[in-house]
Amino acid sequence: MTDPLSHTHIIALDAADPLRPFRNDFLIPRHKHNDQVYFCGNSLGLQPKGARGYINEVLDKWANEAVEGHFTGSAQWMTYHELVREPLARLVGAQPLEVVAMNTLTANLHLMMVSFYRPTTERPAILMEAGAFPSDRHAMESQIRFHGFDPATDLIEVEPDQQEGTFSMAAIERAIAEHGPRLALVLWPGIQYRTGQAFDLAEIARLGHAQGAVVGVDLAHAVGNLPLRLHDSGVDFAVWCHYKYLNSGPGAVAGCFVHARHAQTDRPRFAGWWGHEKNTRFRMGPEFVPTPGAEGWQLSNPPILGLAPLRASLELFDKAGGMEAVRTKSLKLTGLLEALIRARLADVLQIVTPVDPAQRGAQLSLRVAGGRDRGRELFEYLMSVGVVGDWREPDVIRISPAPLYNRYMDVHRFVEEVETWRGF
Ligand SMILES: *Cc1c(COP(=O)(O)O)cnc(C)c1O
């Protein structure tokens, strides 16, 4: 039997990988005369080769048809956002009615909170994780102030209870129970951006709902990374972006989920004409009648050029066999990274991300022995040899092998480069 961590075995893993051909569907940036070893799909996914074709299609349609482009052909702009609705629903485990591609992540978070964060004097509070991505915290805090409440008492930030800065489910459960009667909203990430910890969304929804709170999730790092079952999880709403694991380009149009139980809600919302019922939208009447489901939260006619690359990306996920197939490879790829680090780099790299594969996605967050300066040094060395991860203050390097374009060999290369830097 060959050593599962040997070079020979790793070459064999790539040879036997059913997703291997998909690498060819992406543009891999170059480093000198080679491909970069790109592990930064958690921040900006690589460009699918098909993106340019869809963008050019829009440009050509605009050039040739101008305003008529709204009404002609299957990719007409009037219904363009509907082209991604079903693939997106498949990707996140939702009904088509429950999802929409619109705006950007933080904007969607605010729109969702307008409808789903309805604080009262008895129940004013939002519960979230301490150390959340700053934009999410800014959104929460500003919404609390907007409603005339005080973030000092009404923004409850749960501290991680585990050594690596991760959460036990028990800590989340305790916090929700402790603050239960005061909670208007629980907002939790699908995957924590700094530690890479993945959470059981159905359980968090159950706990929040049991206390009478609304439950929303931020899936920025989970979508395109983990198989999700948003409908079954029962969360009230979800938001995410499409430029990370969804490979749809910088500032891509984002995603939003509203559970079917709210499809016909009379909750307040900030409305715009694109959320109005389709059949009567162009009667241009003064009265707002929302389209049932997530599309009813749309404001404007969407930026078609910003949506175009998402079509190319979603096609690849479908062609690959969906999130189950992607996750199958992801478990092996990140599992190999973990095993190699443990076997060969334990003196340099501490894995912050949970060891339980059920509690993580593609990303491993690595703390470098010797502190921040050593960490920066390693990070910069890796960049200088074309191994691209990213740096998160104060001392973490994030490495995220993306199953659609990373190879097992890439993981091996990372380990070899860290060894070279350390010295054997
Ligand atoms: C990436 C990310 C964002 C970015 O927000 P934008 O509105 O897309 O700029 C916000 N929150 C989380 C948790 C993220 O991971």
Automatic annotation (TrEMBL):
A UniProt-annotated Pfam family: KYNU_C
Cofactor requirements of the protein: pyridoxal 5'-phosphate
Classification via InterPro entries: Kynureninase, PyrdxlP-dep_Trfase, PyrdxlP-dep_Trfase_major, PyrdxlP-dep_Trfase_small
Residues reported to bind pyridoxal 5'-phosphate: 105-106, 133-136, 218, 221, 243, 273, 301
EC number, as in UniProt: 3.7.1.3
The protein's annotated pathway: Amino-acid degradation; L-kynurenine degradation; L-alanine and anthranilate from L-kynurenine: step 1/1; Cofactor biosynthesis; NAD(+) biosynthesis; quinolinate from L-kynurenine: step 2/3
Reactions listed under catalytic activity: 3-hydroxy-L-kynurenine + H2O = 3-hydroxyanthranilate + L-alanine + H(+); L-kynurenine + H2O = anthranilate + L-alanine + H(+)
Function: Catalyzes the cleavage of L-kynurenine (L-Kyn) and L-3-hydroxykynurenine (L-3OHKyn) into anthranilic acid (AA) and 3-hydroxyanthranilic acid (3-OHAA), respectively.
Protein name: Kynureninase
Gene name for this UniProt entry: kynU
